[in-house]
Fold this protein.
Amino acid sequence: MRIKMCYPVVLLLLFNTGALAQLGETKQKFTHGDTLRGSLNPNRTWWDVQRYDIRVKPDYATKTIEGTVRMKFTALASGRRMQIDLQQPLLIDGITLEATGPATPAKFEQQENVAIVDLDREVSKGETRVLSISYHGKPREAVRPPWDGGWIWKKDDKGRPWMSVACQGLGASVWYPCKDHQSDEPDQGATLTMIVPDTLMAVGNGRLIQSQKKDGLLINTWEVKNPINNYDIIPYIGKYTGFTDTFMGAKGKLDMGFWVLDYNLEKAREQFKQAKLMLRAFEYWMGPYPFYEDSYKLVDAPHLGMEHQSATAYGNRYLNGYTGRDLSGTGWGLKWDFIIVHESGHEWFGNSITSSDLADMWIHEGFTAYSETLFTDYYYGKEAGTDYNVGIRKNIRNDIPIIGPYGVNKEGSGDMYYKGSNMLHSIRHSINDDEKFRQILHGLSKAFYHQEVSTGQVERYISEKSGFDYGKIFDQYLRTTQIPELDFYKDSIAGTITCRWTHCVDGFDLPISLPSASQKIIPTGQWKTFAVPASALKNWNEGSITRLYYVTVKQLAAKP
Ligand SMILES: [Zn+2]
């Protein structure tokens, strides 16, 4: 979410138009720090992260943490200088390239939010090594998670410590040292070891592989075997209690785990039944759940929610809708729990398929926002799904393009949610073959399984598999803020529609399927006249078009 759910868009839209306006400022200035964070410079490209083993000990009283990260990496080229991200005011205590014999500490210089590290020896191309980094300090504290993130030091409703982190966009380097760029996930997964008072429980991503109590401390290690986004690796520490279930899914038995604060247990047993409904619908539409090895989990979170891989953060107050409200205004959004559906949808788009640059975040949010429509469609029918999709359109702002600037860790417009979803709805109906559309979603899940991708790759895949070049349609919706307009003249006597696209990029040619007919027409920027069957002509009107396509329509009284 970042509505930015997952990013903050939804909330910003609903409550904080001021902040959104800032988001929409056109001339942004980017700093050297933005470039260091958001671009792949030579100190980052010669090595590829294989695994993170993170060990962290938080101190609730002083709001400080201390930890170590063992980062396994493979040299794609020989190199010696590395950029390690760790955000101020956290301090690195030492960095060592682990060796079988005595290891010499590496030299490093910490500036702003990065450390430039000079290893004590060159790592040769093809070599896999472990860099060990110890650090401590007072991490940036979350102001308004999940949107304005950082470490969360909270009390639960009974006044007991409750800790977690929300850092999408902000970056995982707000609490642990890493290569903080979305393009490089640890291919062999990660472990998170949390050292906490033994009166609390510590939950992480994936599966609990080790747990021990000693000297008043609980030391829990959780592991994911699959690649994972840095910002998805998250500690949850508090008075948790758990229960489990299983789902017989497309790839067999999926373990499900639910970790909630003790006083939420009964509510959770009821509300979290929706997780199975979600899995059923999403496996139908988008393919197998992408992380069977790591299980599926929902975890009570001290914020609204976030797509933390195999440990989805849940904070929707055990209500349907978006904290009890329907973002679509149609009633359909109150039939299900927005956070269970939306955040879990990210397991397919966001966690399995990740955009390599934050600028392309619509790949996460557009598809996931559309998964809400698909969920509604699966349980309540196609018309209900369409109602929902049309309903969320009112949240579109068309302030700035959906795709943001590349190389500076900056996402584009919050329209990536609702407009992204409506673009996909338009494409689906222009294909006019739901089975083909479903196979395209399955195909994306398979072709880009556990990968980082660009917008271009996704665009080309959809065009290739649908058999139609959607390049201009993507340009229109992702790279401009214009809503295309279909101007038409209906000649009932001649049985024709004369139409053209305006308010659009050159070459925009979104196909329109004819109502109550299997045919489609392909209007362009020039006037064209199409013969249309009588039944389709009869049902051709503004509503029948705008319901299925995110466009405006103008009917002309005379033939142009
Ligand atoms: Zn999201």
About this structure: The first strand starts at residue 47 and ends at 59. The first helix runs from residue 9 to 15. The chain has three domains: 1-30+266-293+315-482, 42-238, 485-555.
